[in-house]
Write a structure and sequence with these properties.
- The complex is a heterodimer of chains A (115) and B (112).
- Helices cover 0% and strands 48% of the residues of chain A.
- Chain A has 115 residues and is mainly β.
- In chain A, the strands form 2 sheets. In chain A, strands 2, 4, 5, 6, 9, 10 and 11 form a 7-stranded mixed sheet that branches. In chain A, strands 1-3-8-7 form a 4-stranded antiparallel sheet, with no helix packed on it.
- Chain A starts with a strand and ends with a strand.
- The relative contact order of chain A is 0.34.
- In chain B, 0% of the residues lie in helices and 55% in strands.
- Chain B contains no helices and 11 strands.
- The model of chain B has no long low-confidence stretch (mean pLDDT 93).
Chain lengths: 115, 112
């Protein structure tokens, strides 16, 4: 079974530039999560979806961050006008069986450096 | 808002030792408790989880939960160099949402 895949693996930007991250969850997983993991910290939830619907995006800095999952499969997280404080690893995770607590499976992440 | 804290921040143990990692949480109505392990540059991977008070053992790993003291722990018996990693505890919110709140991690190094 293929795991969660993410691309790109690395990105280096100047402040003010835009970047998009792409995630392909495990086939059949209806729930998809995006996390931000600063260096030497735990993952912090940004947004999560059930199928194509946003369930909670309250931690997403909405003025510069956006996330979509239009067909309930792949997802894209976009940062407009990146800041140095956005430097972190962006992790995507997926899980199955909405309605019970299920294991989240993480992708390898995208390491973002904003100069 | 749920707060999850881990201790110690880092730990160095010799090969073969028993390792104990701690996690405290603030919401007494929390329902799900998990440990994830993250090797350097890799994705976090679920190790074990528990729903109710008590202990659960899987191989060299034991998770212990005490909801009354808002504490759970991970114990690693016969620690191996391959166990060297960042250990993350996670707690679900009690609202029926299945969000996980992660601690900041304990960096474990097992010396051969």
């Amino acid at each position: 079974e293929a795991g969660v895949t993410q691309s790109p693996r690395y990105a280096v930007l100047q402040e003010g530039q835009a970047v998009s991250f792409w995630c392909d969850p495990i086939s059949g997983h209806d729930t998809l999560y995006w996390y931000q993991q600063p260096r030497d910290q735990g993952p912090q939830l940004l947004v999560y979806f059930r199928d194509e619907a946003v369930i909670d995006n309250s931690q997403l800095p909405s003025d510069r961050f956006s996330a979509v999952r239009p067909k309930g499969t792949n997802s894209t997280l976009k940062i407009q006008s990146a800041k140095q404080g956005d430097t972190a690893t962006y992790l995507c995770a997926s899980s199955s069986d909405w309605g019970i607590q299920d294991t989240q499976y993480f992708g390898p992440g995208t390491r973002l450096l904003v100069l | 808002q749920q707060k999850v804290q881990q201790s110690p921040e880092s730990l160095i143990v010799p090969e073969g030792a028993m390792t104990s990692l701690n996690c405290t949480f603030s919401d007494s109505a929390s329902q799900y408790f998990a440990w994830y392990r993250q090797h350097s540059g890799k994705a976090p991977k679920a190790l074990m989880s528990i729903f109710s008070n008590g202990e659960k053992e899987e191989g060299r790993f034991t998770i212990h939960l005490n909801k009354a003291s808002l504490h759970f722990s991970l114990h690693i018996r016969d620690s191996q160099p391959s166990d060297s990693a960042l250990y993350l505890c996670a707690v679900s919110l009690s609202s029926g949402s299945w969000q996980l709140i992660f601690g900041s991690g304990t960096q474990l190094t097992v010396m051969p």
